[in-house]
Amino acid sequence: MKALVIVDIQNDFVTGGALEVPGGESIVPTVNNLQKQFDLVVATQDWHPEDHGSFAENHEGKEIGEVTELNGLQQILWPVHCVQGSEGAALFSGLATEKIKEIFVKGTDVGIDSYSGFFDNGHKKATGLGEYLKGQGVTEVYVVGLAADYCVKFTALDAKKLGFDTYLVEDATKGVNLQPGDVERAIEEMRSSGIKIVTSEELA
Ligand code: VGL
Ligand code: ZN
């Protein structure tokens, strides 16, 4: 059994959003098409309280993009984004949602960020996604969405670590590229961890 995991296709991650992935919305038609090939489609949603520790504005004197420490973990400071219940946190309107069976929220604890859709960045708490997929008999996980160099990468790496046969659909993800080359490096890291990098064309 295979599942499509759609990561964080939310208003704040598309063009004009608070934490814009340049052209992020351009993958949406591909993601919508891919959904037709899956009996199980799930999504993740970045879902932060407004006092979240990943927001630069919650750290006096610190700037967006700075790296700080948050409860013992390195933390990049981001602009305020995906605040629970806000328009920015809503799924992007172009995303087809009829087939999405479950949504797993992450980043809900003030003191820790969660790039992966499976666990927080300290691997302390699970979101329920892993258990859910195993309970559905899933053995293959296909990961798509935003952002390639953060939440998509860590979701795919955790899927692999949990023992799923894991695929990244390369043309169904886009990255932030805070540093030039970040997306390429993320893809190489995924590949060398045993994740299969495929295109939507190959899957059709
Ligand atoms: C993400 C940075 C902060 C993502 C979420 O969805 O890739 N990146 N929060
Ligand atoms: Zn976030």
Explained architecture:
It is a single chain. By secondary structure, the chain is an alpha/beta fold. The chain has one domain: Isochorismatase-like (Rossmann fold), CATH 3.40.50. Helix content is 22%, strand content 24%. The strands form two sheets. The protein has a six-stranded parallel beta sheet, sandwiched between helices. A two-stranded antiparallel ribbon has the order 3-4. Bound molecules: pyrazine-2-carboxylic acid (VGL) and zinc ion (ZN). Zinc ion binds next to loops.
Question: Helical stretch count?
Answer: 5
CATH superfamily (homologous) name: Isochorismatase-like
Order of helices and strands: EHEEEEHEHEHEH
User: What value does the Rg take, in angstroms?
Assistant: 16 Å
Average pLDDT score: 98
The spatial strand order of the largest sheet comes to 5-2-1-6-7-8
Number of domains: 1
Label the structural class.
alpha/beta
Termini, distance in Å? Answer: 17 Å
Largest sheet: 6 strands, parallel
- Small-molecule components bound: pyrazine-2-carboxylic acid, zinc ion
Name the poorly predicted regions: none
CATH architecture: 3-Layer(aba) Sandwich
CATH class term: Alpha Beta
- Approximate strand percentage: 15-25%
From the spread of the alpha carbons, the general shape counts as: globular
How many strands appear in the DSSP assignment?
Answer: 8
Helix content: 10-25%
| CATH fold assignment | Rossmann fold
